[in-house]
């Protein structure tokens, strides 16, 4: 993400990945699969960070 002018395609990609990771995290918690929930929770956190970073640029 060194390029300051990333296309909106990247924003949509970040949002789709974040939604999928959050949904997987919730399902993992519901089924008491804590390792999956932690992993997808981390992915969700990184994607939120990417969205914030994209918005700043």
UniProtKB/TrEMBL annotation:
Transmembrane segments: 12-29, 35-52
Keyword Transmembrane in annotation: yes
Keywords associated with the record: Membrane, Transmembrane, Transmembrane helix
Protein name as catalogued: Lipoprotein
Organism of origin: Parabacteroides hominis
